[in-house]
Amino acid sequence: MRKLRSTGFPDGKNNAVNSRKSEGRHLKNRVHELLKSPDLDRALDELCRFPARQVISPLFSFLYNGDEHLRWQAITAMGKIVAGLANEDMEAARVIMRRLMWNLNDESGGIGWGSPEAMGEILAQHKDLAEEYAYVLISYAREDGNYLEHEMLQRGLLWGIARLSQVRPSLVQEAVPHLVPFLTATDPALRGMAACIMGLLGAKEARSELEVLTGDDAEFDIFCNQKRIRRSVKEAAKEALEKFQVQKNRNGF
């Protein structure tokens, strides 16, 4: 008589494991469907109905996705869901922030795609988390800190810092000296993003570098208001300088 090979689990336990795996796949597929939806606001509302701890893992997996639209939707969703979680359980939200930080650590063995953007979106969405972790996000732009050398990660980092600067500029203001060097980077996306940040922060100490960039015809892509937008570096520089002028007129000096 043929003997059945043991799985190492009692039948009930094995069935429970398989059931959990099936539920996990189903949830990931549902998250994927929602992130692909053209109506992100409705999708976010539905995602927020799931327990945050369950939906976070699928969102992490989509941060590395090659589909750019899907990746940005995941970043936006991560910000909203972690902010909501922080309102209920701050320590659980801190665990997620530490996981994003770990992804950017050399010891993690990964690259950390999407992590700086997700951090910036989360901090833009939640004041208390921003006050705790803004310095960490900025440290990735500091050569005396946790400086990210990978150019593509730097793009994500500057986007994250720009997103934080939109909502909480006071938390980024002291980082200006560490961000100015990006205005002369070889990558036009870094020059353009840095110019955007200077405008958001009213960083008049960068005026001379920005004036040089008003002749820079190179183009770069930026994700803004749930859309991918193509801009030129000179447009970003001119816009920053115009913001300086508006501030001068408003303040009278």
Please give a structural write-up.
The chain has 253 residues and is mainly alpha-helical. The chain has 2 domains: 49-171; 180-253, Leucine-rich Repeat Variant, CATH 1.25.10. It is 65% helix and 5% strand. It has 12 helices and 2 strands; from the N terminus they run αααααααααααββα. A two-stranded antiparallel ribbon has the order 1-2. α3 (52-62) packs antiparallel against α4, α6 (115-125) runs antiparallel to α7 (127-139) and α11 crosses α12 (233-251). It is globular and about 70 Å long. It starts with 10 loop residues before the first helix and ends with a helix.
Tell me about the biggest sheet?
2 strands, antiparallel
In percent, how much strand structure appears in the residues?
under 5%
What's the helix-strand series? Answer: HHHHHHHHHHHEEH
- Number of beta strands: 2
Number of domains: 2
Structural class: mainly alpha
The overall average pLDDT, rounded, is: 89
Helix coverage percent:
55-70%
How far from one another are the termini? 95 Å
Low-confidence stretches: none
Strand order of the largest sheet: 1-2
State the shape: globular
Number of helices: 12
If you compute it from the alpha carbons, what radius of gyration comes out, rounded to the nearest whole angstrom? 21 Å
Throw out a few tags for this protein.
single chain, 253 residues, mainly alpha, Leucine-rich Repeat Variant, 2 domains, two-stranded antiparallel ribbon, 12 helices, 2 strands, globular
Summarize the structure.
By secondary structure, this protein is mainly alpha-helical. The chain contains twelve helices and two strands. It folds into two domains: 49-171; 180-253, Alpha Horseshoe (Leucine-rich Repeat Variant), CATH 1.25.10.
